[in-house]
Amino acid sequence: MHVSVLSAAQIAATLALVTWMITGFTSRPGRWLRWKMFCRANFTVISLTGTKNGRTEPVNVYDHLSPGSFILGPPQLQAIINHLTGTGRYDRIDGHGRLLSSRGEQPIEVRGSHVVL
User: Fold this and answer.
1) Cα separations (Å) of 41 from 9, 38, 48, 81, 82?
2) Can you give the pLDDT of all 117 residues of the chain as single tens digits?
3) Which candidate, 55, 59, 33, places its Cα nearest to that of 46?
């Protein structure tokens, strides 16, 4: 007679694996993306306005990233702002948003073309 019942060891191993996966991919309050691949990633959600000769217009920093890039931390944001102001496209850039990282969610601002955490 063929027995198609999983052994207790297989069931225990399966339950342990499922539990580990659930706790590894869920976040605690104030934490984003606990999975190790994302532990050093920074995601910036920000609304910017650029001013040139007294005229203001929205600035989309993601237009200045490599195709397929979506991870934007404060140093990369500052580099893009420096490029946009250094080339004369804008006199100044200002804005506000949120920075999502392994430390949780933080406010982020751009004042006078400088990133402020």
Assistant:
1) 37, 5, 21, 20, 22
2) 455 567 888 888 888 888 877 766 655 555 555 555 555 678 888 999 999 999 999 999 888 887 777 778 899 899 999 999 999 999 999 999 999 887 788 999 999 999 998
3) 59
18-45: b (≥16 Cβ within 10 Å) or e: eeeeeeeeeeeeeebeeeeeeeebbbbe
The token duo for 86 is: 């250094």
Task: Enumerate the β-bridge partners of residue 96.
Answer: 47, 109
> To which H or E segment does residue 109 belong?
strand 104-111
* CB burial of residue 90 (10 Å; 0-12, 13-18, 19+): buried
